[in-house]
Amino acid sequence: MRLTSRLRELQLAAFGAVAITFSDNTFVAGGNDIMPLEKPAAGNQLTLGEVLSQPSLGLTLISGDNNYKSRPVTGAHSFEISHPTRWFSSHWIALTTGLRLKGKPEEQRLLVEELANANICALGFALDINFKQVPSALIEAAKEFELPLFTVPFATGFAEIIAFINQSLLSPNVGALRRFVSVQDYLLDALLSQSPIRSLTERLAPLVSSEVAFITRELNVGFTSDNVRREVLNAILIEVSRHVETEKANSRARGGNRGKGSSEGQNVSLTQIFEFETDFGPGLALAVLDGERDPSWLTLVQTTAAPGEAGFHLSLPLIRSAGHILSIALQTRNEQASEKRALERALLIESLAIKPTRASSIRGGRGSLERLIAVGIDFSKPVYVAVSSSSDLKRLQADFRRRAEEIGAVEIDDIHDDRLIALIQCEKTHIEPLVTQSDSGIPATFSGLSRAIEGPNGLVLGYREALSALSELESINRKSSSLNWQHLIRFEDVKMATWLLAQVEPSALEAKQRTKVEQLEIEKHTVATLISYLECNLDITEAAKRLAIHPNSMRYRLNKVRESLGIDLDDFEELVDVYLALKRRRRS
């Protein structure tokens, strides 16, 4: 029988005549207490394992093996008197705070012997009332007389345990539903942890007797339960990758029948689940949506329970519940990340004065210092500005963020005017590899890097330095073949003209530069002619080749510049004046 069919039958049975129970594994409840999970006994009989596996009770078995958990439970009662078995029936659970046992190891031993001889199911011992921990004599006697012994946390009253047992015995179906809801609450509580996705995968694994892994939409491993083996993880990745490729192929094949604007991800829903077989056991994978087109995947492989064992019968409903919880966690995380990035982009623009703001000045946005410190840029390590260009800036940005996180760099970045602008704080030895090393699949990337910035007042100058360096690098690369491209230039290595222009606030040169450029733009082709002529180091033949004109045409244009504009291109100072004006114009 196929796995999903068997699981559906078991799921229906769980809410029908058969009580929902769990496998004989353990999971962490409330962050501390270890509680065993138990497979069901025959029929609707309540077992010790089911009582111990109730998350809300927080019970922990400290003496007894897995065989004890199949013991039937027919009732429960608390006691603080001697010879309590006269008030108990066979297969009951006895509960005590140990009021009369303090400092009496012999009486502790006699109590256990009496309970075991009366066929009592188990002894529950309350902590933090009369005892901080279970007396060693009591534990030794429990082992000797084979009486299961479990602890009851201070927060759990005996009345809760007795009520749970009575309700389960009176109405198996209600008890089953209650236990299932309790487990769902246990999974939902993972949202309150610092790492909800990791916590959820760790909590889910023992509940479904499986090794659990969360696979990202990029088909990378996100989080796994503690028990996942590398070979099992590889098998999961292979199966999920194969499924995704098959779905994409099917989607492309159906493309002719879909309406305009359809996408491959539109036929994926949170209910999409598929099963697969591995050498380690059967597996399930559930698509988890978080607002993006492609889903992530919550996966499990049943390896910790024997095939056909009922401990796996909750996998289908629980993985669906976990999938919905994961979707909430992922969407919340994405929203928080989006909001954080929006605030960081605004901070970057203000700090570097990329756009004029009320808080900005020629020395940077002073009001942004506290917010820079809040995101981790406190100038305790060198701070740099990097400006990069690429034909795939989004991919470059994602790769840059990943590498920055790997080396522990603090950065905020934004794509602005077809450039990736980043403010980075990291060790001096890390900055150059961080800026230059990128995924081999990313198109050619060119970057300009500022000098180290010592304080917030140097941020705006640092941005001008990085931008000027990149401008010079792009000019250099236009003259080189693709085989000789230079991918990074530090501001310390730029030419003197670039250095001088970067030191001056743009508004200080604006009037002079505008007058000169307006003069040059009077004559048609003048600006393009001069730029080509200057960038080709005054080589008329090379400049003509760049403009795709004859060298004589190039000479004619240069003569027109001399005659019409009165510019003497043989005069060095005049030539520098034109060069600086045009260089500033291209950066504006």
The helicity comes to 40-55%
User: What's the CATH class of the largest domain, please?
Assistant: Alpha Beta
Q: Which class do the helix and strand fractions yield? A: alpha+beta
Low confidence ranges: 1-43, 258-271, 306-312, 357-367
Structure description:
The chain is an alpha+beta fold. The protein folds into 4 domains: 15-182, HprK N-terminal domain-like (Udp-n-acetylmuramoylalanyl-d-glutamate--2,6- Diaminopimelate Ligase, Chain: A, domain 1), CATH 3.40.1390; 188-253 and 267-333, 2-Layer Sandwich (Beta-Lactamase), CATH 3.30.450.30; 352-502, Alpha-Beta Plaits; 506-587, PucR C-terminal helix-turn-helix domain (Arc Repressor Mutant, subunit A, Orthogonal Bundle). It is built from 19 helices and 17 strands. It has helices spanning 3-14, 48-52, 105-117, 136-144, 158-170, 172-188, 196-207, 230-253, 315-351, 369-374, 393-407, 428-436, 459-478, 496-503, 506-520, 526-535, 540-547, 551-565, 572-587; strands spanning 26-29, 33-36, 60-63, 75-78, 92-96, 122-126, 149-152, 210-215, 221-224, 273-278, 281-288, 296-302, 383-389, 410-416, 419-425, 446-449, 488-490. The strands form 4 sheets. It has a 5-stranded mixed sheet with strand order 3-7-6-5-4, sandwiched between helices. A 5-stranded antiparallel sheet has the order 9-8-12-11-10, with helices on both faces. Strands 14-15-13-16-17 form a 5-stranded mixed sheet. Helix 6 (172-188) packs antiparallel against helix 7 (196-207). The longest helix has 37 residues, at 315-351. It is elongated, with a radius of gyration of 36 Å. 38% of the residues are buried. Residues 1-43, 258-271, 306-312 and 357-367 have low confidence and may be disordered.
